[in-house]
What does this fold into?
Amino acid sequence: MQQFVNTTLTGIGQGAIYAAFALALVLIWRSTRVVNFAQGAMAMFTTYLALAVIERGAPYWVALLVALAGGLVLGAGVERLVVRRVAGNEMAAVIVTLGLFVAFQAVASILFGATFKSFPAPVGLQGFTIGSTTVAFTPFTVFILVSVGVVLAGLVALFRFTNVGLRMRATAFSPEVSRLLGVPVGRMLTLGWALAALVGSLAGLLIAGGSLVYPAYMDTVIVYGFVAAVLGGLDSPGGAVVGGLAIGLGLSYVTGYLGSELVPLAALAALVAVLLVRPQGLFARAAARRV
Amino acid sequence: MAAPANSPTRSDAAETVEDATGPGRFGRLRRWLPKSVLGRHALLALVGLVVLVLVLEATPPFANSQFATMSYYAIAAAGLTVLTGLNGQISLGHGALMAVGAYTTGLLLTPDGLPLVVVMVIAAVVTALVGVVVGAAASRLHGPYLAGATLAFAIAVPGLAIYFHDFLGGEQGMQITAPRPPAWFSDAVYFLSANETSGVKFLAYVGWVTALLVLLLLANLCSSRVGRVWRAVRDDEVAAELAGIKLGRVRVLAFTVSAACAGLAGAVLGVVVRLAAPSGFTIVLSIGLLTAVVVGGLGSLTGALLGSALLVFLPPAITDVGTSIGLDDVQAAQLAPLVYGAVLVLVMLLAPSGAVGIAKRLVPGFGRGRGLRGRSSRDHHSTRRS
It folds into this structure.
């Protein structure tokens, strides 16, 4: 029973991170119809930026801001310089983002070294004690849930209540009509990528917190995030969050009861099952769509 | 995606003009070539064999080992270029399929057990069976979904090797006994060039003879009915289906053939490297193969050969440049993947038809336009429906 509770609590924390990462993928997919396979590598890069800032003696919060700002700039740059030129060609888009993925990883190894480095957490990693037992629910888990919640609320507010958010939604819905109505479509796409990269950077920082970073540490996360996004329908931000939590919980149970080596296999099985049984995802509204 | 110079009308026009002006340089050459496609391909393979013997006998052992490495990249890249370029399915799982081939080889190859050829065939068959399963799941997917699913496959397979560590060697991997060159082979080499046979040279021969066979078979397959059907499915699904083609079956077949190639490549990799370990089959291997086929030119076997040469001979050169500008060894070793990634992006942005596409544009008689032409109609369909 205690193991079940602990696995569940760990799963919720992990799931919140996957949800953030899946959300980043969904934001980009909605606006540009590209799955950004470089998302993980970009997040890894900004996490290393944060680590470099921390090693210079700056507090965690400054590093957090640096990483998020780095994500914004990186996302905007990638969209403006690379992705825009392959718009509409799905094979080229996939290949280009994979190229960026490899390139970012190599640049990080060259600049920051290819060794394992420990990344600090802003708050304690010791689990709370209930009665006499310590559960796997730490202040850092609280930090994860709160920061992901804040980002989610911020995005919802942006898309629901602001002019910019309305323009971005219009761009995703119909670029031609939006352009005719005076929406600067290109700028909205760049902004969308920048915001997505910011959310991705946050996910990267949260995964790294209190653990080790190395240039390939996001490789599996990109797969889990993708599975979560597909589970939610790849088109639905709400679905991405639910999918992220579901994948986090499911994978945590696999780790706890079967072995951590089988986690990627479980993710593959989940992905194949979703794509074969309900390819539109659990939450997508679109009736007919090619997968 | 197709470059304007590759469009059917342009290249057809170029050929007509050439025919009209009488036998030019290419025309005179063509008259000496066999009429049948099979004959032409067989002749090319034979020429390849002669070149192979000359190159391997004239180069030192280190170069021999580089050629052995290139052979398995060439086999895998040839399989991938047929799948991606001709059938339009992208796969990031080919590194993992190579792992299946390598582990099968490691399990079956014992000093006095089955002969190497049999083991390699079994490795190809086992991987092809895995390919049927993956291909069946993949046949309903396209574009980013397919890429994501095969990426998940690539990440999942090495975990299996660690989970079954008693059987598959875990993190350290599985030692593979390299086969010894048979006596008749050493005699033949000594007879040809008076060189002693090294183990490396034998493996380079094994790899390249396999590669030539694979290229011959794939070249024939691509110019046959099967290849035409694959291209039809790639270019316009609806039209292909109306013509009576079963899309699912065709896709699964393409994936299976491609997987068999990857399995053979894995078998060659196993005996050349003498080790099958999870760290050898990371996602970087799969993306490396993708780089090879994209840079060479999607859908072109010549391109796959060029690309695999790039994978083998470029990294040492780049690493040397890195050390000479003052990077330490670890940093210099990372320059190669950086160049891969940058090249992958730049090729897609600037020359999506790859090296072979550029060559075709410069030399009108070079190859036939079987690459990525006619993609625009398919793109149109997919944007309209998504």
User: Anything to note?
Assistant: The longest strand of chain A covers residues 117-118.
